[in-house]
Amino acid sequence: MQLLEYAIRGVPTGCVFALLAVGLVLTYKTSGVFNLAFAGQAYVSAIVYYELRKELEWPLVAAGVVSILIVAPLIGLLLERVLFRYLRSAGSMAKLVTSLGLLIAIPEIAKLVFGSETRKNPPPLWWVRRTDEWLWPEGATFVLDAGQIATMASTLIVVVGLVVLFRFTNLGLRMRAVVESPRLAELSGVDSERVSMAAWMLSSVLAGLAGVLVAPLFASLNPFDLFTLLVAALAATVFGGLTSIPLTFLGGILLGVLQAVLAGTLPTDSVLTNGLRPSLPFVVLFLLLLFRPGLRSTRELADPLATVDAPPPPPVVRARPPWVATGARAFGTVAALIAFLVSWFVLDQYWLGLAISGLILSVTMMSLIVVVGMGGMLSLCQAALAAIGAFALAQVVQATGVPVVVGLVAGVLIAAAVGALLAVPVVRLDGVYLALATLAFALMFQSIFVPLSWVSGGAVPISVPRPVVGPLDLSDDRYFLVFVIVCATATALVVIRLREGTTGRFLQALQTSDVAAASIGINGPRARVVAFTIAAGIAGFGGGLTAIDLGQASYEASFPYLIGLVWVALLVSAGARSIQAAVMSGLFFFLFPALLDKLFALPGNWVESNPDAPSWVASIANAVQPTWAQSVAFILFGIGAITYAKHPEGSIEAQTTASINALVRRVEARNGDREQAPVGAGVGPGAGGSTP
Amino acid sequence: MTMTNPRQRRRCSRGIAATVLLATLALVVSACGNSESSGGSTTIAAPTESTALDQTNVPVDQPGVTPTEIRVGGVASVTNPLGGNYGEAFTGAKAYFEKINSEGGIYGRQLQLVAERDDKIANNKAEVEALLSQGDVFAVLPIATLLFGGADALVEAGVPSFGWTINPEWEGTPEQPKANLFGQNGSFLCLGCVQPQVPWVAKQAGATKAGVLGYAVPQSSQCADGWEKSFQEFPEAGVEVAFKDSSLSYGTTDFSVQVSKMKDAGVDFVITCIDTTGVVNLAKELKKQGVEAVQFLPNAYDQELLEEFGDLFEGSYASVSFIPLEVSDKPQGMQDYLTWIEQVGGTPGENSIVGWLNAALLVEGLRQAGPEFTQQKVIDAINADTNWTADGFLTGVDWTVAHTGQSPITCTPIVKIEGSTFVPQTGKDDKPFVCFDRQTKSLDLVSQ
Asked: Is A249 a residue whose pLDDT tops 70?
């Protein structure tokens, strides 16, 4: 009987999960995008509703209509017109990376537009100031508040409406056809442009509705809270196979019920409970991805006509003429030498510290090159693997007193071992499913393992000393810089060796065609497991270096999963196959916000030193705030990922290709040599060198 | 038309922003928000009475010290996307400096907050290093950050550093006391320690059965263990822990099962180590299930929180780390704070109070160190102070022990929420705080 009581208590929360999960599934069904930016879109509508309802004191209906039925679909329309219309035939990775970019950029844009002050007590979509001011039925065993009633009613209406839409209307059928193949749909007379716009507007309305309904669950409005709730709801989307609205609804309800039943029945103070209860949604997600019948054999939504598209050009480093390769190598060496000398002699402690952190992050980014660029697997758990390397290093050094360098090696090995264990089941999944499985692993690691003192050290992070290597005490940042450069170079050589070796070529073949690769005897899963394991080891290496740099192995400071998502967006947008992109991304992540900080401080400083400046000039200058730096940096990181749609090879590689092409053309024109073709336009790998 | 009311200004600017966004979206063009103009210059009133500090100006060769200035810099989480906006700590520090400067400064020098660094993300150590390497600062204050990865760098540099004790890195150990890190009311956080004020409050509330809740994250669960031990070590309160759950998922919004179980167990007093969203949802659920339980809220001294959710917490208690602003007989330090925080356009609240207290402790250290002050002399002078009260704003910090432990006599200001206001609870001698002697293991109130 008590079990039933707990189960019933879980239903309202289950409805919240169901609403968010149905929103994700709707977007996936109608656009082919597993839209992680759903939380960002929801946040914008929630802010608009807050401002209209609470600050401007608009009536409920007017505020609801504007925020959910006007603002939300316009955002959807904007996203479709500006971005996703170009991605209709793209693979799941391009779409997922774009949505990652939006997830990062949208909340920061909203903060710049509406201000970043704390918005307490978000108003419910009801005629009361707070959800608990309207209870029904009062005094009963099970009482619902205004927010729960609004959410449950809305979820039911949405589910029924969507089932009707997809089962019984032409629009629903057309939406599915356009997702399957916009080109085939057009051949059948469907206006794919209009259908796609309608689909994005509809899914965006649902995001807006979810944002407004869910916001009152929190004491204040925060995009991070909405995203956390969204990732908890991911299990329900997988329960529905990313396509079935009724099953997704059921999955959400079951998740809420299971959570409540476990909270009611498990002992409240055991190790098992401490790990299982907070991680339940992620454990369920991970298990569903591995074992849900039919999921592994279900191919992702893919355009049947995509196979007639031309394959992507080879990386520029493989196709450039020998003289360009030699020149690039010489230029790169000189540039690196100058950068080193500047770091050694010019930079102060702060900028030197940022440069070191950036270089270390570039090591972790190289793990993404292996797993994403070479393996074609969008791993969202590299930050967790880096954390494993850091914790292993810290624990080994603390427990045994071995030199830090030995601990670093132990961290690499342990991270690689964990990566191998994870890879065995995960690499058999496809695109978005693999991304979700790795995200689930990252979240499980955060919920189950990070709180354990034998892993993370508990409330106080474990200290990690700087090593002494021979005569060099690396507590001097300049010597540590040299050490990090050596480590980054060694990692780059490993990655290049891997890329040029058998495994690299197997992975390249697998990216082109699984079936063709298998037909010539390539063991796809084995090659992917090897790549995943090596990438995990590299991530662990980066994590260990981060701990040494920071002086402690701190999950919160260095490895939160959300930061890991930003790394992925940054690296993929710069170029997931390029060492140069990894180094630039790492440096960019740390140096760019600091540079923006300086830039945005300039106008205010100018006003201070020019008190006689005209008041209108001063007011404009004072309007520029250094506190914009982080937001603007994140917006640009996000926009970088959005450009992935246009340049799947990455912006740095695209720019490099364009520069080399221009150079080759200029040289050809000067030499009168008409025979050489431009790089990236059909010249084979054998045409040039193969160094980065 | 001028809008002097900040709330009115904010509404107008938000309205403009909302209108701009709607218009922008309607045209399906990319958004380009207008930046709102920030407030104008601040005029500081002349001091009403002469309380000038020592004006002996002798040459001092110390970082950040010139013949006319003593420069300090601070770091606070302002735009960290993971949460926490503690920027008002800067305003509090500036308010105190304005007060001192209006009195002529100290040792003939003006106090200047020359750097206000934003902690951003994952960058605390870098921002601290920036202060040390670029700022040319004598001291680092305020430090109000979500994470405190720069603690070791500050300890190594030996720079006097003052901040908000919300990170365990503030704590020292007998082997490494971190003698130059000063929290606003001591540096010893001690999450799992026994706190006699907890059973005392439960006893005051007439409670007999307590419920303890915490998240399954190290700091929160340690804190929950501490509350449980507090009841166990003071059985004279007559309160038993009838329900404890320290396995909550961080960010959970549903407490229906926990409240149901507490109801079944007859819990009439609830104490938590959870965030604001958690305590609000817990209070809503208690109301829904008709559980008449008093809450003890360690982190709820927030006027805005009270405005929004005060009725949910009617009859509950909160602890405060300084003398509550609601006391009728305001100590001098609080009067000065309220005057000067208004002068600089700041908002009275915990964050700005922390900045104020940090600045006050630095000035006290300078005063004790004398005209030929050095960083080490300031650190030593503060660490010799056995009763730092910031002119009555604090219950008294014994800095000879406050880095690594707690004083035998522990004093805590407690407020009760009544009619959506904080009502300070009085202890012995009508003081606005309660004190206990840890060594006696008794809940009898003692004098400070």
From this structure: yes
- A380 occurs within a structural domain: yes
Residue A81 in contact with partner chain B when CB distance is under 8 A: yes
Q: Tell me whether A52 touches chain B (CB under 8 Å).
A: yes
Q: Using CA of residue A299, residue A302, residue A306, residue A310, what is the dihedral sign?
A: negative
Alpha carbons within 13 angstroms on the beta-carbon side of residue B230 total: 26
Instruction: Give the closest-approach CA distance of B344 to chain A in angstroms.
Output: 17
pLDDT at A300 over 70: no
CB A627 within 8 A of CB B118: yes
Tokens 């050490």 appear where?
A483
Strand B139-144 relative to strand B161-163, pairing = parallel
Quote the pLDDT of residue A139.
Answer: 78
Min mean pLDDT across A638-642, A682-686, B4-8, B363-367 is at: A682-686
A19 vs A368: CA distance, rounded Å: 33
- pLDDT 10s digits, A321-351: 788 888 888 888 888 888 888 888 888 888 9
Tokens of B234: 């003071």
Task: Based on the fold, state whether residues A553 and A615 are members of the same structural domain.
Answer: no
Domain carrying residue A507: 358-591
Half-sphere exposure of A663 (CA within 13 A, CB side): 14
Cα B23 to Cα B30, B32, B114, distances in angstroms = 11, 11, 40
Token reading at B10: 């904010």
**Pair (A261, A382) in one structural domain:** no
**In angstroms, what CA-CA distances link A87 with A26, A33, A179, A181?**
17, 9, 10, 11
Prior bond of B142 cis (ω within 30°): yes
Q: Do B169 and A460 touch (CB under 8 A)?
A: yes
What pLDDT, in 10s, does the model give residues B170-228?
Answer: 999 998 899 999 999 999 988 888 999 999 999 999 999 999 999 988 889 899 999 99
Residues B220/B273, Cβ–Cβ less than 8 Å = yes
Average pLDDT over residues B59-76: 94
Position with higher pLDDT, B86 vs B45: B86
Q: What is the residue extent of each domain of chain B?
A: 1-40, 69-185+329-407, 197-320
Q: Is residue A291 part of a domain?
A: no
Give the model's pLDDT for residue A96: 87
More confident residue, B388 or B42: B388
Q: Cα B260 to the chain's mean position, in Å?
A: 33
Do A388 and A415 form a contact (C-beta atoms < 8 A)?
yes
Chain segment A423-472, per-residue pLDDT in tens: 999 988 878 899 999 999 999 999 999 988 899 988 888 999 999 888 88
User: Is residue B230 within 8 angstroms of chain A, CB to CB?
Assistant: no
User: Strand, helix or coil at B65?
Assistant: strand
d(CA A196, CA A85): 8
Beta strands in A402-553 (DSSP E): 462-463, 468-469, 472-473, 552-553
Q: What fold does the segment set B69-185+329-407 form as a domain?
A: Rossmann fold (3.40.50)
Q: What pLDDT shows up at residue A234?
A: 93
Scanning B88-107 for CB atoms below 8 A from A yields none
The pLDDT mean for chain B works out to 86
Query: Tell me, what amino acid is at A501?
Result: G
Contact status of A51 with chain B (Cβ, < 8 Å):
yes
ipTM of the complex: 0.87
- pLDDT of res. A101: 87
Q: What is the mean pLDDT of chain A?
A: 87
Helices then strands, counting H and E runs in chain B, come out as 12, 14
Contact B11 A78 (CB under 8 A): no
Instruction: With beta carbons less than 8 A apart as the criterion, state whether B128 and B104 touch.
Output: no
Nearest residue of A to residue B256, measured between CA atoms:
A9
CATH homologous superfamily of B197-320 equals Response regulator (3.40.50.2300)
Cβ of B251 within 8 Å of Cβ of A225? The answer is: yes
Q: Are residues A194 and A235 in the same domain?
A: yes
